[in-house]
Amino acid sequence: MLPASPSSEEKKPPPRLDYVGDSVCRSCHQEKGKTYAETAHHFASSWPSQRTMKGSFTPDSNVMKTANPYLTFEMTVTEQGYFQSAVEKVSPTKKISRTERIDVVTGSARKGQTYLFWKGDQLFQLPVTYWTDTGSWVNSPSYPDGSPHFDKAVIPRCLECHASYFEWMPPPVNRYRKTSLVLGVTCEKCHGPGRQHVARHRLKSSLPAGTPEAIVNPSALSRDRQIDLCGLCHSGNGTPLQPALSFLPGDVLADYIDIPYYSAEEAVDVHGSQVQTLKRSKCFQSTTTLTCTTCHDVHKPQVDAAAFSPRCLTCHEAKQCGEYAKLGEQGTRNCIDCHMPLQESRVLFSNTNGKKLMPKVRNHQIGIYAGENVH
């Protein structure tokens, strides 16, 4: 996607040479590197493999029916890789098909996975997605049900959140240098390019005391800049104002992406709008210190929502809960499902075999929700 309003001072992404890669970071930060490698961020995108592919390729489980009784999609695996095929029955004795290889996996499968394929040096989304809630294959969001389309272009704004580096070579808008992709959210996505930092540490004994580290520690940034760093990918699509990958940790996000912030009366979808919804929370507005990392340790896998409850109790007393008289201390074991409930997304959905499937996403507007009590 081209920047909406190109600035006279257009920013440029750092060159690939400035990035050293996670393996170099792990040489000094071994423990954090080990646990980070298991996080959803790390698997925001990956190469297809037995470990990263979560959908079933076994017979019967590898077929997705559509609203068109003559069209099915089949997922297969061979020595050459993983594939998706659209198979259309055009007569009692004849079928036509189109097959594309899965070249990139996006998503850790906590909610699901979708897949990308190369056509020359253009990158497209495949028409079938894996849906974790049902353990089944479904139509990729925004693809029409019952039609054999393979034409959804993957734009830079999508890759910017699912990958750490790529070289964009438009036109067309989805053209990239294939060998340039650095998949997943790597250390340098949040800490900035590490070449100078590594070089200085290798010369540490000969550098004057107090020499800058040449790396960003997000916890040392102001609250606004910390929120901007997370907001790059957790504020929805937005409209690019500068080229993808030009935003770096510590920058003002509004200079790079026009992010929609809605009035208190407007509905905000739970998908991809974690920053907008968090900022609506009384918890956020009543303090100057609450940030995303107040609750999230991005260096470790975090899958149990109830485990966040002790963070709530650093500010709130158990007796403040409206259900305390009924639940007592038991109510403190899971603050999250009541006060940050899972809710259906209205903008991210799949139309599959005549049914509309909507994923449930955690609402980050911390509050009191009528009828959401699940203790």
Describe the overall structure.
This protein has 375 residues and is an alpha+beta fold. The protein is built from 11 helices and 19 strands. The strands form 6 sheets. Strands 1, 6, 7, 8, 9, 10 and 11 form a 7-stranded antiparallel sheet that branches. A 4-stranded antiparallel sheet has the order 2-3-4-5, with no helix packed on it. The chain has a two-stranded antiparallel sheet with strand order 12-13. The longest helix has 12 residues, at 223-234. The model has no long low-confidence stretch (mean pLDDT 92).
Roughly what is the average pLDDT, rounded to an integer?
Answer: 92
Number of helical elements: 11
Helix content: 10-25%
Beta-strand share of residues: 15-25%
Distance between the termini: 45 Å
Order of helices and strands: HHEEEEEEEEEEEHEEHHHEEHHHHHEEEE
Q: What structural class results from the helix and strand content?
A: alpha+beta
DSSP strand count? 19
Poorly predicted regions are none
Morphology call: globular
Give Rg in angstroms.
Answer: 23 Å
Largest sheet: 7 strands, antiparallel
